[in-house]
Amino acid sequence: MSVETLIEQTSGATESSPFSPESFDSYVMTTYARFSLALERGAGCRVWDTQGREYLDFVAGIATCTLGHAHPAMVEAVTQQIQTLHHVSNLYYIPVQGQLAQWLVDHSCADRAFFCNSGAEANEGAIKLARKYAHTVLNIKEPVILTAHASFHGRTLATITATGQPKYQKNFDPLMPGFQYVPYNDIEALEAVIAELDSGERRVAAILLEALQGEGGVRPGEVAYFQRIREICDEKGILLILDEVQVGMGRTGKLWGYENLGIEPDIFTSAKGLGGGIPIGAMLCKSFCDVFQAGDHASTFGGNPFACAVALAVCQTIERENLLANAEARGEQLRAGLQALAAKYPHLVTEVRGWGLINGMELKADIELTSPAVVKAAMDEGLLLVPAGPKVLRFVPPLILSSQEVDSALQTLERVFAQVLNSDS
User: Fold this and answer.
1) Taking the CB of residue 264, how many other CB atoms lie within 10 A of it?
2) Closest CA to 392 of 425, 355, 348
């Protein structure tokens, strides 16, 4: 079944219970600053709200819906697996988990995989693995993991500590010990910290970075910076961990973000796009640092048959439909269009940056216009975007995006900018 057929089948009015934000908020914790929009169905790169209005989705569940909405490959995988076996314990072998692990290993620098449910859990697993490696192999009594300012690694206590943004840490102290922050893309600062900690019981055991900082403003890593870090890690026995939760699974036009940097990590994490919207995460590593033993780490739902079957379908579809090439081509088209808009509205836009289909447009710091305000205006025009901080618009559409949909998004954004100018005049 094609995406076009699915759109036709879901294009009619649907019956549902009346929706009320007030009723919703009376039952659900208000941990999200939600936009006043309730979505109920989707097909391809489009979604519809409870009033039947259509939107072009350049959020994709925040870089998660790799194949868009209601993709036939996912529909088939979900249907078959839920009718067969959806969950058993990891006390037993799960064949489809092994198939997914093999696909990921065959298509990356990793040798082994551990499955969980989210990016935060994958990063927790990487932190635990690095600490055990530090104690048992490097003989470090107080291991330190270096992370970057403006990074984002998750919402658990360990991963918000690893996250170099105080706004996520406020009122959750005491935070976990064993982390220290360095400026992103600043090799001299990183080397200075390592030298400072190079003697004594407290030493650097691992460096945890994003190949491209997503929540930190869509800031790509610099090749020379990461290549020098790889050299330092090799020289000193430090583990290099890359958080690929947002940039992995083809988002950058390459399967993994680290491929843009010409290096290989020792450990990397994946989630979001791995399951195309079905919760699954993975921590992958090279065999030399696989020091986990039975009982060291576990997850009740991690790697269950349902999640793994869908994730495997996503992986195989990326390969079969050549979506890496599409992400690269559509990303180039999108950046060119955004750069043209930046040139047309230089008093609004500072910079356009990104890889593949993760792109950011930074607004001028000295104007009142904020990224949430532009997101709201674009939503009113039928285009869904997501902020990456108060001054950066983030564009992370599904990898199945068409050239016509790129053009449509650019036209909508231009209308929004024109409206902003008219309102200021």
Assistant:
1) 16
2) 348
Decide: 268 and 112 in contact? Cβ < 8 Å. Answer: no
Tokens standing for residue 391: 């001054």
Residue where a domain terminates, one of 292, 320, 348 = 320
How wide is the angle at C-alpha 205 spanned by C-alphas 280 and 179, nearest 5°? 75
CA separation (Å) from 225 to 47, 87, 181, 207, 263? 39, 43, 16, 13, 11
Residue 424 has a CB neighbour count (10 Å cut-off) of 11
Q: What are the CA-CA distances from residue 297 to residues 118, 245, 300, 319, 342 (Å)? A: 15, 20, 11, 31, 48
pLDDT in tens, 220-279: 999 999 999 999 999 999 999 999 999 999 999 999 999 999 999 999 999 999 999 999
Say what angle helices 95-106 and 305-320 make with each other, to 10 degrees. Answer: 40
SS3 162: helix
Q: Say how many residues make up the chain.
A: 425
For residue 346, is it within any domain?
Answer: yes
Sheet holding 46-49, edge to edge: 39-43, 46-49, 54-57, 383-384
pLDDT bin (cut points 50, 70, 90) of residue 425 is low
Q: Give me the helices (H) in 21-153, please.
A: 21-27, 60-63, 72-82, 95-106, 119-136
Residue 400: count of CB within 10 angstroms of its CB: 23
Q: At what angle do helices 187-196 and 223-236 cross, to 10 degrees?
A: 20
Question: Could you tell me the residue range of the domain that residue 326 belongs to?
Answer: 3-64+322-424
Alpha-carbon distance 345 to 380, whole Å? Answer: 21
* pLDDT tens for each residue of 14-56: 445 567 888 899 999 999 989 999 999 999 999 999 999 999 9
d(CA 23, CA 111): 48
pTM for the whole thing?
0.94
Domain count, the chain: 2
Q: Is residue 369 part of a domain?
A: yes
